[in-house]
Amino acid sequence: MIRTGGGPLSGFSRRRARRLLPIYGLLLPGLALYATWAVLPLVNSFVLSFTDWSLTKPPTPVGLANYERAVGDPMFWKALSGTLGYTGVTVAGQLVLGLGAALLLHQRIPGRSILRLVYYLPVITSWVIVSLVFLYIYNGQAGALNWVLVDVLHVIDRPIAWLAEPATALWAIAILGIWKGIGWTMVVFLAGLQAVPPELYEAAEIDGAGSWARFRHVTLPELRPTSTFLLVVLTIGGLNAFISIFVMSSAATGTIGGPLNSTDVVLTYLWKQSFAQLDLGYGAALSFLLAAVVGAISLVELRLAREQSR
Amino acid sequence: MIGLRRQRSTRRWLTFGVAMAFGIVMLIPFALMVSTAFKSHAYVIEIPPRLIPAQPTVDNFVTAWTGQDFARFFLNSVVVSVSSTVIAVTLGAMLAFGFARYSFPGRRILFAALLFTMMVPGMVLLIPQFVLAKNLGILNSLPGLVVVYATMNLGLNTYLLRGFFSTMPSEMFEAAEVDGAGVWASFRYIAIPLARPGLATITLFSFLAAWDEFTWAIVTLSNKELYTLPIAIRSLQRAQATEWGLVFAASLIALAPVLLLFVVLQRQFVSGAFVGATKG
Question: CA of B195, closest CA in chain A: separation in Å?
Fold first, then answer.
């Protein structure tokens, strides 16, 4: 027998259920995929970071031991300083050159749209390909860079193995990072420049402001929200640098993070701990430490930007 | 007055000169890649490096395509990128529409969870995803790549499309509802056609991200016949005597579809509308 009506309330809730059901139906497939492959792994990874685990036997809980180990691990600190150095250099380089490129292409010059394509080309080329190209350019004996510096400009006497010298390797890779990101930074700056009201420039011109003064007092302040956005996104990108370092260091020196760990960043160190040492609990803890660093730096940058704009 | 105009025009040419010089510097790595791809092995490392090859040859392209099972790697990349893109765009659009146009219990917390997970570095998820794929028996398989690539793009697609859907005028949806259209009909016949430019853009981004993905592929694939292009190309690079001509010919083959999309859909790439989405 069908149970009918329990008063107006249940009729209401049935109508509500009928309204909600298709909405949840719409969301379910995406949420299921996301829950299985993103949320669940995230939770698992967090739990794993409190265990000792090497794939061969089940994980054993060790409390905070992995995090304590990281704090006392000089190699982790070296990797973190590599990450921060790489990030600082690449973010600054991309911001300065990206802004420069945007200012150039914001003018009405011939070939503007072709030049924009050219600047943007590195952005759409995969990290693996550009890493191999720069590996070729940096070749220690007869790379194009050495040829230019030794035979054309005579700046150095003999070729330098850029990627095999601890003093230069990480910075050589950082130059690739800058080159690859200029086009993207430029496009964002161009969008910001287009949003500056022309009246501001006209008013400044009437007040007798020269081009430098207009740049300093109109363009830069108006670009502040754009710059903040770029600063945060580029920083996150820099802190997560991995493929170029992985490909170039292993190809040039035979070890990931080589020579002499000079190109180690948090992600390469994490990779080696997880997949070479099979120290998966420690690897998970390192990944959360990096996530914490990313979160903390982004918050500081946003806070600083807000204070400056007051 | 004429003096001022002349000054302006000089400045314009100066700007043009600087922009061109900068463009040439930006292009040098590509120029080297292209010219080396057309050089035979004897000439790939030469001093001085020649931009125009002495005896240009297409041998590298032929060897890359035929000698290395490259057609297979190319096909693997196409299959994985296309299927993960279809999933990430379809499910992303459904999620975005639900979040943008309806209120329901759990809406805020679910969306916050989506955003939060999106911001976590991919490497955090790598190990548990590896274990999960192993337990499900899809480690070292193309479906294993597809689910992870679809997930990787789903968050951003949802986020971007939600913005698109929530700016659409509500009157249209209300009118459709009066006419008896349900959630699915509104989605299919009103929201999707209106969101076409946004859909094109996220399709492009999802495809590119999958086409270029390296880290998950190198972790999960151990069978060479399952390789996708990025790891296949990297495997051509050797410790000694790398055949650079071959490496770059293979790279150019992998780059060709991207360039084609780029030229055809330039607007989607460099428009400010979805700024923030292409950063790899």
Answer: 17
